[in-house]
């Protein structure tokens, strides 16, 4: 029994040291790479996301939302810490029987090699391997000094506490440095043209936004973000290119400079996520600097016999949709008068008017022309959200004032436009037209709506519905997001 307890006391500090080394390695990697694909956790998280069954992905999107991706990132982080800790634990064992530094350096080299294998970046390997060497060498050195001094202390416990403190310091430093680096990464994209019509259109959107407290303006304050990976790619504009390939007369490739040399224009476009809830907030509008795709197709000699296109991205995403739709698409390289942000596809992304956000591919690298239909990324996972968006009126503002109630939101129907929004304050028995914001220029833009009424002093249900530009009313039947996007009338109970 005493022998067992002795081994346990020895093993527990060693495990603590190994875990501390794992934390330090992850922090070191983040410090040198920031929130980029060079961060050792990023490719692991990406691999986990792709390996998940379609049912798990659907649950994460429709139930967990953004929390699902955060849990995926946490799982990948714990996995990386565990792998590094296993290597470090072997290093601790070796260090007890070998000359100084052998165990520490050996473990650091192995961790660095694994990081290089996963990320393909030498700097990431250095950032992950070096902290392991530092942590294990410090433990080894402390233990040997204690032994040489002949003091009556438990070197294992003290060294474990010391390394935990060191790992904490590594973590704080890594997060601070990595966050700064992540903020600065994203490619050297030039800003969008600063011309008068861009500023005029932004001012117009501000002036036409309804003056309702809590209602997001016509140009969104914060644009929603949905990606297949927790860490976005950082694509340098100078090395970026986009190719038109597949069944074409000749393949053509365009650089970022080529793109910016083309005739462009600013235009308002609204995007909506196919996986959002009916009254969710993954629907936003921006003013994008765009060039049309049709001339690029003509230059490549894309014939009408082709059926589809597969758009591919730098992060490994791919989505297929009809070629006829692609001819109406744009490539955007600016957003709200500035360079396209990394989070929204810098240096260039696809915009497909009137269609769900999933086919508006970010970090665009290729348009492959196809003769037969194939499944895209989300279709392989059971989704079918390529087609035109569903009409929706969202109810996001409910302000109970003295004697009255103000309700407001946004309405969207893709390229069909919005002609009318109706509000019912008695659960759908009677309806009244809501006030609409003036239409912004553009073929694919939302509108705001607002309605104020006297409070009936009893609990009641407010229901809202929209009509598209053709006068077609939004369907009442409620449908979940999976597999083709949510639909139905939005309602809220007012106490």
Question: In words, what does this structure look like?
Answer:
The chain has 495 residues and is of the alpha+beta class. Helix content is 38%, strand content 21%. It contains eleven helices and 19 strands. The strands form four sheets. A five-stranded mixed beta sheet has the order 2-1-10-5-6. Helix 2 crosses helix 4 (66-95) and helix 4 (66-95) packs antiparallel against helix 5 (102-119).
Structural class: alpha+beta
How many domains? The number is 3
Treating each run of at least 4 consecutive H or I residues as one helix, how many helices?
Answer: 11
Shape-level CATH architecture of the largest domain: Alpha-Beta Complex
What is the CATH domain class of the largest domain? Alpha Beta
Quote the distance from N terminus to C terminus.
67 Å
CATH superfamily of the largest domain: Oxidoreductase, molybdopterin-binding domain
What is the molecular shape?
A: globular
Major beta sheet, strand line-up: 2-1-10-5-6
- Largest sheet entry: 5 strands, mixed
The helix content is 25-40%
What portion of the residues fall into strands of 2 or more residues? 15-25%
Catalogue the unreliable spans.
1-12, 144-153
Question: What order do the helices and strands follow?
Answer: HHHHHHHHEEHEEHEEHEEEEEEEEEEEEE
Radius of gyration: 28 Å
CATH topology of the largest domain: Sulfite Oxidase, Chain A, domain 2
Topology, number of strands = 19
């Amino acid at each position: 029994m005493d022998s067992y307890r002795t081994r346990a006391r020895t093993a527990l500090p060693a495990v603590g040291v190994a875990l501390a080394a794992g934390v330090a390695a992850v922090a070191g990697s983040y410090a040198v790479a920031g929130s980029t694909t060079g961060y050792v956790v990023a490719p692991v998280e990406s691999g986990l996301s792709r390996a998940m069954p379609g049912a798990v992905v659907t649950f994460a999107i429709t139930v967990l939302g953004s929390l699902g991706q955060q849990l995926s990132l946490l799982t990948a982080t714990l996995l990386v810490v565990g792998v590094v800790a296993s290597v470090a634990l072997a290093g601790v064992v070796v260090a007890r029987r070998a000359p100084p530094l052998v165990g520490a350096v050996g473990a650091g080299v192995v961790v660095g090699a694994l990081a290089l294998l996963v990320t393909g970046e030498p700097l990431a390997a250095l950032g992950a391997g070096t902290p392991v060497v530092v942590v294990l060498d410090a433990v080894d050195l402390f233990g040997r000094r204690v032994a040489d001094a002949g003091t009556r202390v438990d070197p294992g416990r003290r060294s474990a506490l010391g390394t935990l403190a060191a790992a904490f310091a590594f973590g704080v430093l890594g997060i601070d440095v990595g966050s700064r680096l992540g903020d600065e990464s994203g490619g050297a994209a030039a800003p969008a043209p600063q011309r008068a019509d861009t500023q005029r259109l932004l001012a117009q959107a501000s002036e036409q936004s309804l003056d309702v407290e809590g209602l997001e303006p016509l140009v969104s304050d914060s644009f929603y973000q949905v990606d297949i990976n927790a860490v976005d790619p950082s694509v340098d504009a100078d090395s970026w290119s986009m190719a038109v390939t597949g069944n074409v007369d000749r393949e053509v490739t365009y650089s970022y400079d080529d793109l910016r040399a083309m005739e462009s224009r600013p235009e308002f476009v609204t995007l909506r996520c196919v996986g959002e809830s009916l009254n969710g907030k993954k629907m936003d509008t921006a003013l994008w600097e765009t060039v049309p795709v049709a001339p690029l197709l003509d230059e490549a000699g894309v014939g009408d016999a082709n059926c589809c296109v597969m758009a591919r991205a730098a992060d490994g995403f791919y989505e297929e949709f009809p070629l006829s739709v692609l001819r109406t698409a744009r490539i955007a390289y600016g957003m709200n008068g500035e360079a396209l942000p990394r989070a929204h596809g810098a240096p260039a992304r696809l915009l497909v008017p009137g269609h769900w956000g999933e086919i508006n591919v970010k970090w665009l690298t290729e348009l492959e022309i196809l003769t037969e239909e194939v499944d895209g990324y989300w279709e392989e996972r059971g989704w079918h959200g390529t087609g035109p968006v569903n009409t929706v009126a969202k109810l996001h503002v409910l302000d109970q004032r003295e004697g009255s109630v103000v309700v407001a939101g946004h309405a969207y129907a893709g390229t069909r436009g919005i002609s009318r929004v109706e509000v019912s304050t008695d659960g759908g028995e009677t309806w009244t037209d809501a006030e609409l914001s003036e239409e912004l220029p553009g073929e694919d833009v939302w509108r705001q709506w607002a309605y104020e009424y006297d409070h009936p002093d009893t609990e009641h249900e407010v229901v809202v519905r929209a009509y598209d530009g053709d006068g077609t009313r939004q369907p009442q039947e409620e449908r979940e997001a999976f597999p083709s996007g949510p639909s139905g009338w939005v309602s809220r109970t007012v106490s």
